[in-house]
Amino acid sequence: MQKIKHVFFDLDHTLWDFEKNSALSFQSIFQKHKLPFSVDEFLEKYVPINLKYWKMYRLDKITKEELRYQRLKEAFNSVKFAAADELINEIADLYILKLGEQKHLFEGSLDLLNYLKPKYKLHIITNGFQEVQSKKMYNSGISNYFLTTTTSEDVMLKKPHPKVFLHALQKAEATAEESVMIGDNLEADIYGALDVGMDAIYFGNNTTFTGKRVEQLLELKNYL
């Protein structure tokens, strides 16, 4: 990968430990509202529901507001808790606020970024909500590693749409040929990047993927 000058990262589930930070956010909310079930019981239902709604959001089948409301509504129904709309909307807002305050990164994130920063120009491409992604990066101490951050709301489209990657490349003053994308989602991050001519490294455990792949972040040193 000698041509590579720019390294683009996804944020959630790649550098920033979304599931751990999400659980801590809900734990804080549950303590405040004294909900009649445990956080673990709720998360068992919520995690796959959230992934389902994020995929629908990525495919433009639902709006941002529908995502924030419906994932909670379905999760509460799954634990047989009849939550009023007012409570769901309050928790949805509080969850976004609490999520941005969390700072847990995946193991090896800071070591990797310290290794890469002197060698490459680093960037973020994320489908996450614009108002919370910058807070996540600041509070977890990684903002200063990245020269540009591109969110789906910058272009009103979501990965894997080619225009998201092309916009990010333009913003970074980079070409596809000298850039690599690193992310956990094969559809949104990896195939999306490959489709515009970027290289890509998948961070995950799907062994059916035959391209460049790592299961631990520090394994990226084998490529970069």
UniProtKB/TrEMBL annotation:
Residues in coiled coil: none
- InterPro entries xref list: HAD-like_sf, HAD-SF_hydro_IA, HAD-SF_hydro_IA_YjjG/PynA, HAD_sf, PGP-like_dom2, Pyrimidine_5'-ntase_YjjG
**SUPFAM superfamilies in alphabetical order:** HAD-like
Report what the protein is called: Noncanonical pyrimidine nucleotidase, YjjG family protein
